[in-house]
Amino acid sequence: MSSSINTVAVIGGTGNLGTHLVRALLVGGFSVTILTRQGSSTPQPSFSPYTVTFTPVDYSSPTSLQSAFQGQDAVVSVVATAAVQTQKTIIDAAIAAGVKRFIPSEFGVHTRKPGIEKTRIGELLKGKRDVVDYLIANEDKISWTGLSTGFFFDPAIKNSLLDISPSTATATLIDSGTEPWHASLRSHIGRAVSEILRHPDITKNQYLATASFNVSQKQLLEIIEELTGKKFEVSHVNSKDIYQQGEEKLAKGDYSAFVNFLKVHFEADGAGNALKEEESANEKLGLQTEDVKAVVRVLLEETGVLAASA
Ligand SMILES: NC(=O)c1ccc[n+]([C@@H]2O[C@H](COP(=O)([O-])OP(=O)(O)OC[C@H]3O[C@@H](n4cnc5c(N)ncnc54)[C@H](OP(=O)(O)O)[C@@H]3O)[C@@H](O)[C@H]2O)c1
């Protein structure tokens, strides 16, 4: 059986990451089918000049899934966080349909990092870890690749999710703000997935990590101050307080606590979650790191914070 991958079914390809990922696969020359929930009201994006097939599927029905997977070499799941548990049924159907490669909906925190299961964020990500465990247990039937990416950088900058707000010229730094963490543009993640599927042999049954770059809040603040020519009003917040607020939210069943634990996981002093060169799959996938300042400039231009350069 040829190991090459040409046809790809993308679950959640209409979403936040999915649209970027589908475009990268199309640019990479793959034939793409987007699976959507039956009755979904999510708008179907245009990928002009490329064409994709949209196939409504009942994710609880093995028959519906299996029929959608006929003829697909790979399945990439970018399903919403709330639905990651559904992926075991999806994997079973992919196996039954003879799919060669499954990429689960990871795309964030490195869920295989030793000891992560003992942390709050690791507990909240148990659903994702269970899916990779399931793939490992079934790797004689289907091959898999997991991909950790750090923060999605472009929406984080555009929506001031990193606590640096160009519109109010304010910033809240966690602890000293100097802890480096890793982040990826969604376009970079799309290219990474495309390269994984172009090189199935060297990416088989592996959990990989990629990033556009490592950066700290303080470095970002300095870049944004320089680009906007504004001096920001800076305050500091203790990571222990953010963590405690997360615990309080969780006790009330408020899962927005995830964001508290995410910030502490990456940005607290001493967190140690920058992506080290020896941990990065960028070289294996032929991907370059990007220039933070150039990326931030473009994102601030796209949001109208900076005038577009000629
Ligand atoms: N690293 C980061 O900073 C970061 C940020 C956000 C997300 N993520 C991760 O990236 C992955 C994709 O997240 P995303 O934000 O791109 O997802 P999303 O946009 O919220 O959802 C993706 C698609 O999933 C489908 N969907 C939504 N709710 C569903 C449900 N309850 N059951 C089944 N399907 C559902 C929808 O497609 P249809 O309506 O067409 O079916 C939707 O377009 C997740 O693993 C998430 O944890 C990481």
From TrEMBL:
Gene3D superfamilies assigned to the protein according to its UniProt record, in alphabetical order: NAD(P)-binding Rossmann-like Domain (3.40.50.720), UDP-galactose 4-epimerase, domain 1 (3.90.25.10)
InterPro entries referenced in this protein's UniProt entry, alphabetically: NAD(P)-bd_dom_sf, NmrA-like, NmrA/Isoflavone_reductase-like, PCBER-like
Organism superkingdom: Eukaryota
GO molecular function, one term: oxidoreductase activity
NmrA-like domain ranges (all copies): 6-245
Record has NADP as a keyword: yes
Signal peptide: none
SUPFAM superfamilies listed in its UniProt record: NAD(P)-binding Rossmann-fold domains
CDD domains hit by this protein: PCBER_SDR_a
Keywords per UniProt: NADP, Oxidoreductase
A matching Pfam family: NmrA
Ranges in a coiled coil: none
The protein, known as: NmrA-like domain-containing protein
